[in-house]
Amino acid sequence: MNERQPLRRWAIGSALCLTLTYGPLGISPVYADSASDSLQQAIAQQLSSADARQLPITEFYQLSDGQPVWQAAAAVESLVEALNSLENDGLVPTDYDADTLLGEFQRSQSGDDAAQASFDIKATHSLLLALDHLERGKVNPRDVEPQWDAPRPESDYSLLRVVHAVEDRALDNATALARPSSGEYQQLRDTLKQHYQLANLGSAPYLAAREESLRPGDEADDVIVLRQRLALWGETDLMVADSRAYPLIDVQAASNQRVFDAPLESAVKRFQRRHLLQEDGVVGEQTRLALNTPVSARIDQLRVNLERARWIRPMQSAEPRVWVDIAGYRMHYVRPNGEHWDARVVVGSPRRETPIIHSTISHLTINPSWTIPPTIMREDVLPRVRADINYLARQNIRVISPSGEPMVAEEIDWQRPGGVMLRQVAGSGNPLGRVVIRFPNNDMIYLHDTPARGLFQRNQRALSSGCVRVEGVAELAQMLLQDTGSRYQFSTLLNGGSDRNVSLSQRIPIALHYLTAWPNAEGEVEFRPDIYRRDAALLAALQRPV
Description:
Layout: E1 20-22, E2 29-31, H1 35-49, H2 57-63, H3 73-85, H4 101-109, H5 113-136, H6 141-144, H7 159-167, H8 171-178, H9 183-201, H10 221-232, H11 262-274, H12 285-291, H13 295-311, E3 321-325, E4 330-334, E5 340-348, E6 357-366, E7 370-371, H14 374-387, H15 391-394, E8 397-400, E9 421-424, E10 435-438, E11 447-448, E12 462-464, E13 468-470, H16 473-483, H17 490-493, E14 500-513, E15 517-519, E16 525-527, H18 535-543
Helix pairs in contact: 1-5, 3-4, 4-5, 5-8, 7-8, 9-13, 13-18
C-alpha cells in the first residue's frame, strides 16, 4: 500500500532562528526562538524525560515531525467524538478521558508551553491507549482466564496511517484501523448499538411466573405480555403499536392479541433458537427467564463478548483451522479449499470445564484405549470399584502399574490404591469411541468420538469431563488426513489394532474459545447460557478504570 510521507510543517526562517539545536527526537532541528517551535521543544523534552511507555507515543511524534497535534479545538473535538463512539465497542470512553479532554484543552491554552505540551502528549496517550484496547482488548485474558495459553495479539495497525488520520481530523479512520475487521465482530458491535437504543426506549412488562407453561392455542392476558416481550427483542410485527406511545413500550393490542397463534409460535421458536433453548414454541420456565432478561444484562453480555472477540488472533481467510465454540456447542473446520464443515459438540460440564486452548492438531489415535484421568478415577471410578470389584471387568478396565505392568485387581487395597492406573481397552464401549484427535496442551484435552451419540440431540451439551466429543468425528478425521496429504484412509485404519497413532504431515491450527454471545450461521447473534459463570469476572475487569 502506498502511503504518503508525513507532512512537513517546519518553520524555517533564518531571521528568526538565532540558535540551532537538535531535540531528543533526533529527526529535525528545533528552532527555539519561535512560539510554535518552543512548544515543539517542550514536547520533545517531556517525551525524553517521561518514564518508559508501552504505547508508541514517541514514535507517533516522530512520524508527525515532532509537531504538536492537539492545539486546535476542532482537533480535540474530533478526538472526543471518536472516543465516545467506542461505547459501541463495549469500551468505556471515560477510560480515555473523553469527558475531560475539552476542558483540559481550554485550560492548557491559557498556560505556558509546558502546559500545552503536557496536554498534547496526554491527548495522544488517550488516542493510542484507546486504539490498543480496541485492537487487543482492554483486559489481559490471563487476568480472568487462568488457563489462557496464548500470547496477546501484537499491535498490527499502521501508526503512520493513524498520524495521517489525525492530521486530516478523520479520527473514525484511526479507530477503523485498530478495530477487528471480522464480520462476527461487526455483527456484535451492531447488536450492541441496537441494544443501547432499546435501553433508551424503555422496557416492556415482564412475564409473570406460571404453574403451567404458555402454549400455542392458549388465550390469556399473558399472551399480550409475551407479544410485548418478543417485540422488545425484535419481533415487532407481533404487536399493533399505539402511535401515542414510544415504540416497543406501551402497545395497543388488537382483539386477537390474547391468542397464542401460529405467528406467535414461530416467533417464540426463533427466540428459543437464538438462546440455545429447546425449540418447541412453548414458553416454559427457561424461555420465560430468557424473555424477562433486562436489556441492561444483554448489553453487559455483548460488551463481555466484544472483549473476547478482541482476544481472538486474526487468521487469513485461506488458512485452514479448527475452531471450537465451547458455549455454543459447535465445532467449525475451515478446510484449505475454503469449504466449511460444522458439527455439534459436547463440552465439559461446569464441574469440569473445557479450557480455552490455542494449539495445532498433530496426530490421530485410532481405536484408542483410555487411560482414566486422575480426577475421573478419584471422583467417578473408585467409588464404584469400592462398591463392586466386578465393575472393572464389566467395563473392560485393566489395572496397570505406573510403569505399565498388569496388576491383579483383587490384590489391591482400593481404599488406598496408591499409584495404580486404570486403562479401558479399545472397543465399542470405550468413551473415546474409535478415534481421538490430539493437539499439544497442558490440560490433556482432545477431540474424540463417543458411543453416547444421543447426547448430541440435546440443546444444552455441557456434559463431558473436559474433552470435546464431536458428532461425525470420523468424517472430520478423514478430512484432516486428506487435507494434510496423508496416504492413509480413515476407514482402512479402523481395521488395524488399538492405539495406532497417525501423525499429520501438516499441523492444523486449533482454538477453543468461550463466547456467550456470538453470531450464528444466519447472522443472528445468539445469547448463550454462561455455563461456566465467567462473564461476571470479565465484566468487572472491563468496568475498572485504567
